[in-house]
Amino acid sequence: MPMTDYTSWGRVHRPRQTVCPPRWRTDPLPACAADSLLPYGRGRSYGDCCLNDGGGLLPTSALEHFIAFDEQAGLLRCEAGLTLGDILEVTVPRGWFLPVTPGTRHVTVGGAIANDVHGKNHHADGTFGRHVTRLELLRSDGQRIVCGPDENPEWFAATVGGLGLTGLITWAEFRLKPIASRAIEQQQIRFASLSEYRDIAAESDAEWTYTVAWVDCLSRGRELGRGVLFRGRHAQAGTRIGKPDRSKLAVPFELPVSLVNGASIRLFNRLYYATHPTRVQSREVDYGPFFYPLDNIAHWNRLYGRRGLYQFQCAIPEAEFDAMHELFERIAQSGQGSMLAVLKRFGDVPSPGLLSFPRPGLTLALDFANRGERTRRLLGELEDVVAQAGGALYPAKDALMRPETFQQAYPRWRELAEHRDPAFSSSLWRRVTGETA
Ligand SMILES: Cc1cc2nc3c(=O)[nH]c(=O)nc-3n(C[C@H](O)[C@H](O)[C@H](O)COP(=O)(O)OP(=O)(O)OC[C@H]3O[C@@H](n4cnc5c(N)ncnc54)[C@H](O)[C@@H]3O)c2cc1C
């Protein structure tokens, strides 16, 4: 197989990898002339957890079959390369929805498990891994391990949030949630500051299944952390909405320079905030634009130009609210940041993985156009604030975190190391653990 440039969503890295796609879930792992292997879903991770520079990649796009669907119980078994979007196409008309979904539907089941992804309902339902009942792991020695919360639980805990390092997940089984309509009852509420956000978020989490906020990351002073909170729940049967919007915009090619800069962000943020009135706005919307607003612009990451983007996502204990203030201060001062800064409260539903990222507190996610050293310096400063507050950075989004930050935030990483398939590795793993083989 040729060397090729499979990359991640941030497009900062241009790794050289040998690509060895598995064909069938019943086959052994493909022969691959590389020192190490790593499963690859759809590369929707932003940094280097899905990359294996100098090694081999196992893209799972051929493992895209449904295996069994119990329509009474809402239990689905499918191959790990199937995307969440493909699943929704089949299950929504039958009255079933994903238990947890990230902000794009273009991720695979294997990727959702390996990063133990979270969604807007984390405060109510926890992470994706909590809803997985069983999965099969194929190891490089040919062994197949079926595991779940009650079956080989140590392998399950290592594989959920295990960053693809315990072996190839060939199939998984998980519970869906019943819905009466494809519509979402949605409300939008503007808030004028970070403290106001905290009150509205706590009140909303008590009553709404889904909550998330957009924040104007460049506002300062008394307006620091102002934004708009979105909350939603699945609508009742018979709720009427317009036809689902199937139109697709696309950024056709990589732009030579980033269109995302201080001036464009400031302008967008002012307009976006101003166009949301202070009173609560309610309406019914299709689940697509509610969960996946960015999916309507294919390849939107190309807007960041050839140098790509970094994403920063942290979790900070709620008691360390001042640290969140400091993060916003530093981002606003730097003039960097993005139109899409997202704030959410994680709940206290325990995550099942040894290395799952979500933990009780606040999570902030935002993109930064890659402006070289300037951006890396800012991200280093933000990392310091997070580490001092006892928080964590999300490996699915990260490209720069230092080993000490990772090892402090994920103290069980050595247990994952013990379960790692000796033939598997990744660029992220080598960077944050120093392990080379
Ligand atoms: C627009 C956007 C919005 C997002 N929103 C969220 C969000 O709200 N919440 C959230 O948690 N994440 C979010 N993400 C991140 C994304 O959900 C995760 O990075 C996810 O893991 C990507 O899945 P993927 O299939 O593309 O896997 P990849 O990115 O290709 O791989 C991710 C990891 O999974 C491993 N892996 C993939 N397939 C397998 C397999 N079959 N067996 C074993 N390991 C495997 C890889 O080795 C790698 O370590 C978002 C990403 C984007 C681009």
Can you describe what's shown?
- The protein has 437 residues and is an alpha+beta fold.
- It has twelve helices and 21 strands.
- β8 (132-138) and β9 form a beta hairpin.
- α8 (321-334) packs antiparallel against α9 (373-388).
- The longest helix has 16 residues, at 373-388.
- It is globular, with a radius of gyration of 21 Å.
- The chain starts with a strand and ends with a helix.
- The relative contact order is 0.15.
- Flavin-adenine dinucleotide binds at residues 9, 38-45, 49-50, 60, 80, 102-104, 107-108, 110-112, 114-115, 117-119, 163-164, 168-169, 294, 396, 426.
- Residues 9, 38-45, 49-50, 60, 80, 102-104, 107-108, 110-112, 114-115, 117-119, 163-164, 168-169, 294, 396, 426 line the site of flavin-adenine dinucleotide (FAD).
Number of helices: 12
Which ligands, by name, code or SMILES, are bound?
Answer: flavin-adenine dinucleotide
The strand order across the widest sheet is: 16-12-14-13-19-20-18-21
Helix content: 10-25%
- The radius of gyration computed from the alpha-carbon positions, rounded to a whole number of angstroms, is 21 Å
| Main sheet characteristics | 8 strands, antiparallel
Q: How many β-strands, per DSSP?
A: 21
Task: Report how far apart the termini are.
Answer: 22 Å
Low-confidence sequence ranges:
none
Structural class: alpha+beta
Average pLDDT confidence is 93
General shape:
globular
Strand content: 15-25%
Oligomer state equals single chain
